[in-house]
């Protein structure tokens, strides 16, 4: 049996050849079925496992081609063996990984356990020699799962554990290996046992304790008896790698390192006494932290306890305690979704205690997540006999999930095989065999090195593409680059690489990034070993940066490899996905590239560069009219990312232009050529690059006429792409640079015609025609005729709402918009719609001169106006008008969440529920929130119910259960399913009582929900026939709650219904009068009071009389001041007839929980803005600054909502107990970090921008200065 193999020493190789040749004349001791390897492959460490973890089917080495079968895996193993014999260990490791991937991806089902065992054991040796001890330990553990009697795997795991400082489990492994190995093969294992025992026996204290080095001569001694018998011996290099280390005494610190790899104490901040009590204390503390939800801290304490017991410092550590610690840490890691770590811990726990049921269950869970379905099923099947019902329910559920996943994987595999067979049949006659694959001759494995070498020579090695990162770790990379071996040194190398990149020294940048990576992987950066988080984030940034540099140098394979490494660290790194997609595109692997870009788009929807790349890789429908160009905001893995920031330069490497005037000209020429070839998207990208270089980079001074041509040309491309708004913006910019640019005028007229801006398009053509002479004016004349042929909308023939007077300027448009918002907040919905319409008409009239040059401002303002008017129309029940406004808003920005949400509501009311559901789901993908989830749930229930679309339910039909259409319409889904009421009259009464109690407690929102639930049960569910008087009381009570919430229109509707059910309901009359007063309907309110007063006696009519006096004062034409005063009068002046004290606008209670979505946050701000004390308390207690950023991290906070947040901050800062200035600064800082913050802040009106400046002025010290500088750029 081969214990371990090494073909690095030439002398030993020759000796082994001679010994093996002599031995082969007599007999062969054992056939060598596992040839072992000896080099590193940092290009894809544990590639198969990592790829399974993240994607389940991702090929770790797509450049290596093997048959997708058991025979293919065997062939890959044999080829790995030959590469090992040739000393190409990095390539050998990749072939073993490729073979294992066939099993782990589920592509080969009949994968025997002995083959898996051999592959893991072989790869473990390669990784041992590469000093990848952790990976080697994992491979050995996997091999031992398949075959617990595999002595080689146990010996190798002992070696790895020695290097990792796990002395106690290492000693256990080597002692068991000694029992299983033949007597003549035990020498290395015996030596290893001695080394471990020496380290265990070494005292911690004196620094002068010396360790005896292993004599160098031992490595070159003559073959032993075992070697003569056909065994190949290897001598593991010990700590004394050089003479210095061999000759000088070791200090305690030195003894904690082996071969340059740290065995030092982890987490030095956690201090434990080296006793069993210390380990128990750590376990107890870890459990407490787990209960509190501090999962990462809990895992650290478990790790410290495990290290203490396995370091050899604590005598008598029991296997059961160590098993529990590993199992507990696995549980913490499962909550953190660190599935590979969970699997490792559970495997270790089971090695210590094979009946640990929790470890079996958790490992099965982890393997399911890692897509190791067969292994997961084995675990759960082994677990079930250990459990008795009903304790086995979770395990049964887990088994069911695994079997379902296997069935899905089988179907997917069958489809893939069918597609593959069809493709092979199509291409078999004309296509050569796949690159890098040959049917290989099966050669009997021999103990003879000479025979094996000859056999390997018969077969040509398939090619494997390797990157520069495969340099062995024991050889310093770029020794001419000198940096200190510390965190500071690694950062210095990284920063130098970033600076070289910005200077376009790409090779120098790559060298420095590689140096920094080598330093981290060498194990010599001592102060980094205890901070895994810093190591991972730094490695992520370095791989991502080097990938960017390699892309620029067109080293596509190297770039892909770096991105793959980055994604192993952080699978959701958008930049790495994007860059790998570009590299794969260049290598002709479009399908894989498309997968990457689609995954990136899930993480960052709508990013322009990603969308463009997706369209290039997969032909897509033409862009929707009016699609707004969106800024790509990448989830940065490093604040000091190489090269210019992502928000200033498009990060595509495909259009390299030198930062000179000649470079700009080249970009223009490339764009023109691509346009003539019909490659419009590519053309647009080149013009964009040239414009960036000319205008935004600050590197080149470009004449205005050339910049104008670039904008005009890009506009032409965008017209072809039907990007009308972007084309209009480009033409406007071109005309700012050169007012006589006739092409820009013509193209802007075309864009405006498509956007429905008829008068503005006509104005452009009329300006253009005098510049042209016949016959060159023919196209312009035809365009003019087309514009005139279109009917002019009534809104543009005459001024809309001439009674509303506003200045024709940006300031005037903003004033009309603000007036509409104020009227909306007072529930004057018709007035709000009129003002929004007036502002839109002003914009589209072409008379707002100072807005023409700023297309961005025009578009953002139109977006807000259409969205706001849609909201107003929804409140008025004008569903069609609301839908049209939302559609206009979505033409400007297809990702406007509010517009999607409001259009979904309108379409639901119009009976088009399937379309509504699509809108709701699109909005949810952009910004999850309770309102959207509720709407989606309601729409799904409606679309899944037969007959719902046949007859639209009206309010009257909902109230008359007996009049059901045919086919019978299903009832609406039950609202507020968290409020449980039995479907009886008693249940309705209970809902009423609950609402009354909540009202008394000041919880008006909860109260309103209870009344709504009771009303649904009494009227809409069809389950309860409630008397009219109860329904009337419920409507009246809900109206009272809605008055408190300042929902005047809803309160009025409730009172209408209460009075329909009982026309003498005095409370409903009084409350409707109050609502109508707030809605500025004084005459209607007065009519209610005239009807009410005869019902009341002298003791209960005081409030009604007082309200009547207020209304009469409003109606007196001689007192406009009184009218204004009363209109602004707070609602505290109102109370119901039955109430002894006026309490309608008493301060509402503060919400008890933090908002769970952006929409909820904005709703609470709006409802509390008239109660500054409550609002301030809510902000300080329930809305920490960091929450703002997290709620708006994936979709932007729209400009009008941003203004509301700013006004809320000002209110809180001006309250009786004001928000402190430094705290205001924290909120502003987080707002700057929200998605698309720069764009949204720039869209604020001048008065809102002034508000920002006032808030910044409240922030003291340097923080205020920094904020002032940041906002100066933004505003």
TrEMBL record:
Compositional bias (Basic and acidic residues): 216-257, 414-430
InterPro entries tied to this protein: RPAP3, RPAP3-like_C, TPR-like_helical_dom_sf, TPR_2, TPR_rpt
Every RNA-polymerase II-associated protein 3-like C-terminal domain range: 1155-1249
GO cellular component: protein folding chaperone complex
Stretches forming TPR repeats: 574-607, 897-930
Domain of life: Eukaryota
Region (Disordered): 33-59, 198-266, 414-435, 635-654, 946-979, 1119-1157
Assigned keywords, A-Z: Repeat, TPR repeat
Cited PROSITE patterns: TPR
Family, per entry: Belongs to the RPAP3 family.
Protein's name according to its UniProt entry: RNA polymerase II-associated protein 3
